[in-house]
Amino acid sequence: MIRNMLFHISVVLLIIGCGKYEDSIENPSPNNILVEVEAPQTNGWSTEEIAGTRSGITKTVKQKGEYDLNMEVSTLYYPAGYATDEAATRWANMEDNITFRVIAYKSATATEISTANYAGYGDYKLSGSSVQTTKSLILPMGTYTFIVYSYGNSSAITTFTNSSTSVPVTNGQNFMTYVKAGVVINNTGSKYTLSNIVFKHHCARYRVQAIAQAERMGIITACTGTVTLPKHNATYSFTNNALTAQAGSGTINITWSSPNAMSVYSNYTYLLPQTSASVTIKLNLTIGNKPFSNRSTTLSGVTLNANNTYYNNVSFTTTEGYIIGGNIWANGNLYYTAETKKYGIYPNTLTCSKANNAPDYFVFNNPLPNNPELVTTWSDSRDPCRKVEPNSTWRTPTLQEFNNLLSYAKGVPKDGYTIYGDVLKLPYSSFMRFTDGHPHEPYFDAIGYYLCTTYNRHLQNEFIGGEDSSTGEIIAFVIRCVRNK
């Protein structure tokens, strides 16, 4: 009885093992061969010298923006030898933890690939210098063409079906392939190792460099964005090892990892090859602790070639202020011209009249300089900054806004001025006292007071929120306006 039971079990196992191409690694059929894979490499990213004229190689757009925050965008190749990891090489190690797929066809060449001679597929993941098998590929003896592909990430690849001899690709995927044809496998009951896999890059590598204007802005501390291209989807064909992009626009995200500098590079993303493309870049970023959203520009005639690395320089500039402490601060202090009855902003940040009857000293919430009329409750209608043409472009800062600015102060007074974050300089303006309704020449003992919207509070360079001496005299101060939006 026991002998008969053992014979029956053996027969069942033999029938199950012979009926499949794909089986477990631990117990393959004796007539099939387990396909293992050596750690693959890539052909390295191409880096080209910028040669000849700049036209056709560099695309530049200048665009004036809100608050006069202007954008200048250039599209460039990475110059050869830009950095060690950018240098063009024949062989380059793959990033760790990348998944890839091996598909086998019973054919001697790629041109003979068809759904009819499909033999199976296996999935693998690079782990250090070795390869882990996620789904094993087991084949009978024969001659095969292997199609190897990866989307350049650690995510599991969508299950393959034998309904076609192609796979889809979209922007944002680092799509790579390798074709190995005419492989003869005849070591029955053993293993075959697929070696010397060198992936070919089918997309362009791309990143964005956001740049804040030196001596005008604080650092960039946050940045995200999108890129929209006319071709977003493509199909890779196994038979001719070609990637074909289809018309149909799409948008991908661009990300930065903890930016904290005047110039910050995004992480790499990957774009389908296309020519004469119209590319729209849209960024949301924080400069000098002030957020800016939907900063957008479009570049036309852009060409992206496979296996090349490109980047966009997106430079932000302004001529109408300083971006720091969460605000856009005016170029200079506020002044009033009696002859024209107009308000203006000094073009130089250090200008201060420092004279009796000066046109740039204002009493709290008084729209006219040298006017001793005193009010104690702030009203926007009386704000002198709001009277600078065009109307409502500027306003007097709040106490909190000035405190935020002072939190960026660094260094010590230099040449009579305090330097804020090496960006904005404020003159030692002191203050003017009124006696019998007449202003007197300002005091200048290396102090600088600035009016804010809180009564009986003013700002001194060395101190945050210095209290007024409350002598009973009416006092006038200079004003450094901020943008009203």
Automatic annotation (TrEMBL):
<protein>
    <submittedName>
        <fullName>Fimbrillin-like protein</fullName>
    </submittedName>
</protein>
